[in-house]
Amino acid sequence: MTTAIPRDKPILLFDGVCNLCNGSIQFVIDHDPEGTFRFAPLQSEAAEALLADVGFDDYDFDTFVLVEGDDHYTKSEAALRVARRLEFPWSLAGAFRVVPRPLRDAVYDTVGSHRYAVFGKKAQCMIPTPEIRERFVEMDATGAE
Description:
Number of strands: 4
Strand content: 5-15%
Distance between the termini: 14 Å
Order of helices and strands: EHEHEEHH
Helix content: 25-40%
Structural class: alpha+beta
Mean pLDDT: 84
Number of helices: 4
Strand order of the largest sheet: 2-1-3-4
Oligomer: single chain
């Protein structure tokens, strides 16, 4: 492991300028009362370091990435792994893992490729409110969290 970012909790990496992605992160925050998940925009140095650490160097901004320890998940697999850890009834969505991944990912890719046109995008990454700031992963100039 090359970064000082602790991975004791799952970390969601998301497109910080995408309105749909930001809405999804807000949804997770609202339905994760235990604070299970931490977050970082894919455009951040923290995300870049985490992705390098887990060996995922072929990413783009069309998916969010779930980093759990030394493992990472993308697209529908990431979304459903997150869903199953949210409060009831949202946790039931995890049952969709029985649908074959190529089919799930095809739907995910279709939404992802049209997300800016349908939902729009911001000029810059979201700035977390003070209430949720500690759940966002950041790196300082030295590379430490």
